[in-house]
What does this fold into?
Amino acid sequence: MRTVKTLREQYQLIDELLEKKLQQIPALMEIAGIDMWIVFAKEYNEDPILEFLTPTSFPTARRLTCLIFAKTKEGFKRYNAGRPSSDLDPYYESIFNDVDEKQFAAIRAIIEKINPTKIGLNFSSHYAFGDGLTKSIYDDFAKAMSKEILDKVVSAENLCLRYLETRLPEELERYKEIAELAMDIVNEAFSFNVIELGKTTTRDLEWWLKQEVNRLGLPFWFPPTIDLQRKDSGPIYDDVTIERGDLLHVDFGLIYLGLCTDHQRLAYVPQVNETEVPEYLMKAFKENNHFQDIVCANFIEGRTGNEIFTASVNQAKAEGITPMLYTHPIGHYGHGPGPTIGLFNEQKEIKVKGDYPLYKNTCYALELNTKRLVPEFSNKDLYVFTEETIAFDGEKCIYLAKGRDHIHLVK
It folds into this structure.
């Protein structure tokens, strides 16, 4: 039976990288034009970024957590302006004693001492990842600060996005293990060890996937879905018993070591006399693979999501492909911060989120589909839905799991 690292081992690996991740912040603040960044989080209403600024032993805010990052005359500093915490002490200098002083008074004192030019707070009109500051916290902050301080407040939106989307080399290497684990689970689901012909339904298979992830002590970041296409009826999205000749499709993602996967794979249930996936299916599938390659070739650092979308779709159409493209960033969150590259329900350039540029050392769910009229498939359109978790290293896209180049044969 497959296994994962113990919880203790998982937490150790995550915490080992925290200091390196925090060391990225000064450069990212410089790019964002911010010389002080204040992150507030209320207990059980955490800022989306808090979990990735603190160790695993600090999983939620404590009353009102406040972390401050600042450029000072003595160098870059990280402060804990919330309740003192031995869990945070290795990473942050505590500046609030929680006994004989008021929290916002301590925050104001450190701001006035450092006298920053721009103070970044986490509010954003477009990105949840940069919008963790609640109105009530801001109201309390504003009440305690001077007008001079409030005039320095700007959005830390870009800083939040860049911090969350950037992967360290160690994370990129770890991501391969995570993606392979996800695909190992899918490969077993697509086998006669799990599928009993004439009995197992698509919903049964979904529950098997959920149960296996749960058995490993992991969460899935969205409920897995199974659907299929059949010669006589085309696509079937309702619960249905799996039969020979079905083309199965899964959408599956889990969370492991702090990172999400997102894959869509196809599997063919062979007829009694078949030992390979039929050529007419492989022909349509290879066309989809080619569209994946087209999209990856258009991943050029600095290009916006909209530029990647338009160039990729136009090239595919020019080559006679019928494409749909809706790729999204992935990382700590399944639908993560970064450039939107089309949407399933909006096959066009997307304002604001599509205008965000592509940076190196970021990861994506390369999600798309193609369709082709197939005479052998009852003369119906065959839809090929695929999705691969990939990394972009600044020069090329890297597929994090094996097997994207074939339809899985159920056996």
Summary: The first strand starts at residue 36 and ends at 42. The domain at 168-409 is CATH 3.90.230.10 (Creatine Amidinohydrolase). The chain has a mean pLDDT of 95. The radius of gyration is 24 Å.
